[in-house]
Amino acid sequence: MTNTLCLRVDKTSGELVKKILIKSNLLDHSRRITADDETVFLLIPVIEKPDNGQMRELCLVSHSVELISAELPPLKAPKHTLRELLFGQMPDALIIHLPRSFDIVGDILIIESLEVAVLPYKSLIGKSLLELNPNVKTVLLKVGKVEGEYRVPKYEFLVGISKYDTTHQEYGIKLKVDVSKVYFSPRLGAERKRIAQQVVTGETIVDMFAGVGPFSLLIAKQVAAEVISIDLNPNAINLLKENLLLNKLKGSITPMCGDARIVAKPFFGRADRVIMNLPGHALEFLDVALALIKSIGGKIHLYTFAKDDPIKNATHNLGEVASKLLPAYEIQAVRIVKPTAPREWQVAMDITILGNGS
Questions:
Q1: Cβ neighbours for 218, distance < 8 A, ≥ 6 positions apart
Q2: Which member of 59, 117, 190, 289 lies 3.0 to 4.6 Å from 12 by CB, making a disulfide possible if both were Cys?
Q3: Cα(287)–Cα(304) distance, integer angstroms
Q4: Contact by Cβ (8 Å): 269, 189
């Protein structure tokens, strides 16, 4: 009998759900993951029903998880995999230590990390990744954490064309990026789209930590809204200004370079919506975000890091800070965006400010 078991999950959490299913040996590799009639849901094939513990883990990363029966098309076998290409070119015992995921920014492929055992083969790994990804021109290896004033990782060039600048495209916008000078994560593409879809015509939005402008540009591309885009890194703001010329926008964007605590002051009380994509420090700027929101209230989209039970901990951490600021607020949604370290996740929080009294 043909297996028809599937999990119906929201698209934005599809990759996280897939990783959990692979880890639990539940993913049915013989069938293709399919969009559910062009809705916001995906159908992911499973070989058997997840147990209660597995379902709890899945529900942590997706606000909608439903076991259903559906006929899905067979999955075409890939031409090659990294393991297949490197089999016989390095010791068999090291094959299991090859990277399982990477990021692609424009035509640059970034390996997040390599285990120590396979570092002597890093150039060979890079060449194989070039072969597997014909649109990629450069392979870089991340060799440092995201740290420092501008949150810019350090990279080692491995193979291809030695460069760090590229043009990345997502959801109809073009983004000029230099990964050696600015922080940019392609993994937040779905999250940026999710926020942009909530914005309505006429809103004023403050993007407090805008980078090269992915949130700002996607919003202004889709909606006639006013966006104030702030970043401390002058390289990011310069690239944002170039990106304004690359995209046809319905709304307007005002780039501003400097500390959000200072440069945001002229906009206090003017924002319908504030975006706070600085997970390591966003809670420290919550007072500024609240000052930006109109006296009648508004929305804050805050990104933070949380450990262990991430939803519970993120909510608790927000409450501790918000209680000192005494705003009237409601948490509309809390969701895991992506894992960032062992037992640590990036969490997105959609917060409705009911009125800050200003």
A1: 170, 171, 172, 173, 192, 193, 196
A2: 190
A3: 15
A4: no
Query: How far from 254 is each of 156, 226, 264, CA to CA, in Å?
Result: 34, 8, 12
Distance from C-alpha of 77 to C-alpha of 20, rounded to nearest angstrom: 21
* H/E segment holding residue 85: helix 82-86
Buried-state track 279-309, b at ≥16 Cβ within 10 A, e below 16: beebbebbebbbbbbbeebbbbbbbbbbeee
Give, for all 358 residues of the chain, the pLDDT tens digit: 678 899 999 888 888 899 889 888 899 988 889 887 666 789 999 999 999 888 888 988 888 899 999 889 887 665 578 988 898 899 999 999 999 889 999 999 999 999 999 999 999 999 999 999 999 999 999 997 777 778 898 999 999 999 999 999 999 999 999 999 999 999 999 899 999 999 999 999 999 999 999 999 999 999 999 999 999 999 999 999 999 999 999 999 999 999 999 999 999 999 999 999 999 999 999 999 999 999 999 999 999 999 989 999 999 999 999 888 867 899 999 999 988 888 889 999 999 998 744 4
Q: Which two tokens stand for residue 268?
A: 């206090």
- How many angstroms from the chain centroid is the CA of residue 71? 30
| Count of residues in the chain | 358
DSSP annotation of 213 reads S
Which residue type sits at 12?
Answer: T
Environment class of residue 200 by beta-carbon count within 10 Å: exposed (0-12), middle (13-18) or buried (19+)? exposed
Q: Which of 129, 140, 70 is nearest to 100 (CA)?
A: 129
Identify any residues that bridge with 74 across adjacent strands, giving them in sequence order: 31
Sign of CA dihedral 25, 26, 29, 33: negative
Closest CA to 208 of 167, 262, 246: 262
